[in-house]
Request: fold
Amino acid sequence: MKNQLFFFICLFPLLLVAQQILPENERARVVDEILEDRFNNLLPNLMDKTGIDMWILISREYNEDPVLRTMLPAKWLNARRRTILVFYRDKKNNTIDKLAVARYNVGKSINSAWYKEKEPNQWKRLMELIEERSPSKIGLDFSQDHNIADGLDKTDYDAFMANLPKKYKSSVVSAEQLAVRWIETRTEREMVIYNQLVEITHDIITEAFSEKVITPGITTTTEVEWWMRQKVTDLGLEAWFHPTVDVQRTSEELESHLYSFSGRPNDMVILPGDLLHCDFGITYLRLNTDCQELAYVLKSEEKNAPEFLVKGLKDGNRVQDFLTSNMVKGKTGNEILAKSLADAKAAGLRPSIYTHPLGLYGHSAGTTIGMWDSQGGVMKDDGENYPLNPNTVYAIELNTTITIPEWKRDIRIMLEEAGFYGEDGFRYVNGRQTELLLIPRVKSHQDN
Reply:
């Protein structure tokens, strides 16, 4: 009985997470329902706002446009042969045509408009559809400033332009604004799902940074990383990047920011007194999370984390507050960055901000607010002039450097949480870390 109880206690956190995760067939239903809503309700609005009445996306199998990938139905894991999608917005009649110049219907929403037996040439059929609708602006996915909006390859661009009637050549424009808005904009239903997704992410981190996974003096950082990766797989989910776990402690010097991305030592044994940090993100229902949290490994005589670390986390929360209070509709990422850094520095903090869009991709398209190596602002080809739009999600990623006299060194308080910017302002999708996770958790019998 005792062994059975122990097994149930160990399994219980897994059950809490697993209850929120749908089987594959239900995931497919939800993905397709969300896509249909986005095509019928979101896309017409975005096309009107960006002034593009025909949007053409062209991809070949295994070389998909990043935007087109987000439009494929759940049963399509890749494009097939050459897949061409055509969206035509008739604003006057309030209609939108969703057509595929392909041999197949693309899910329920996009019907095939090419009968090869009638017109063997795929490009000629595409030109017929253009001629029939006579668009004023034809948007193609090429962009210098946004990598995700630059998915049209040269071969297909050249073929398209060679076949396009001369009278339409001046109508061809970059669809980058439309593509970015499609990628960055979240619907109401997606945000309900996002809350659940971030909660799952938090649950996995909480379990990873616990005595269930970590035995001080034995467990290594690499083992925790692989535990997190395996946990994601066991739950039937995916990690969009390999998790990282690192240590800051009294005997180590503060490394450069590059340390967090490359050059970290593997297999560091986790010890009492360590400040642990993780960077972790998962993919579910085509949405992505990106989260960094902190834990402290208690020494045998401790029941709480040292006050200087508790205060350090509060300083990190203060930097978050400076940033999110400066997120204002229409402001560019560079404007938000400059004001947030200035406000935090004026309060005596030593901040670094490198917040990025989050959604259909982990490092998604939209407003970039700094990079770890571009604290003076990002360059044009990183989306410098792109404004903050409502109904968008961001990884609120940043750190503040604090001096710890007791450790005779500086450390960084590194945090990252999913945040939603809507018409009513900013909110965290599923809360944020305001208290350090403790390893082991302080149990009631320790108070006796």
User: Anything to note?
Assistant: The chain is about 35% helix and 20% strand.
